[in-house]
Amino acid sequence: MPRRTRIPDLSQRCPACFFRPEDCLCPACLPPVETRTRLLVLRHVSERLRPTNTARWAALALAGARLLDYGARDALLDEAPLAEPGTCVLWPGGAPLAEPPRQVVVVDASWSQARRMLQRIPALQSLPRLSLPGPPPGSLRLREPPVAGGMSTIEAIARALDLLGEPDAAARLDRIHALSVERGLRLRMGPDYARLARAG
């Protein structure tokens, strides 16, 4: 019998960033940053209500970024946005691109879900791939990556933008990620966080 996903109580959270009002990330995300590269985040539906979903914050912070949910029951994915000229997918193992992409598709899911999405969405399989160097050493995260060198979605988008020559947008996302980790740990650990911060 499949395990049910626990839906968190979000009634006392900001409806945009899912943090408590006193820890709201929206001031750090707004106004959105303009980028040459368009971002299309293809998010597995199981991530939609996770308070730690970082794609939500990236979409708030980047002007023109689109967020599409995949995997909802009886909901078909519109693959037309994936076929736009100059589109690539952010995925390991890609060859160097001949020219900078106009649009980068980012798969937002667990690694096992992301692999299945790549297998089940024909439009993704045909896209050229943009690969990234590893994450900065010692980065704190709200969720531990299941693979060596893994990154959260917002970190991966920041590294992609930096690689494509948009360091200001990358720096904004890095700042939002750092704030989210700090505030998320404080929310999760309660009084223990203050003691840990003093010890550090």
Automatic annotation (TrEMBL):
InterPro entries: DTW, DTWD2/TAPT. Residues 10-189 form the DTW domain. It is an enzyme of class 2 (transferase). Keywords: S-adenosyl-L-methionine, Transferase, tRNA processing. Pfam families: DTW. Its EC number is 2.5.1.25. Signal peptide: none annotated. Belongs to the TDD superfamily. DTWD2 family. This is tRNA-uridine aminocarboxypropyltransferase. It comes from Anaeromyxobacter paludicola.
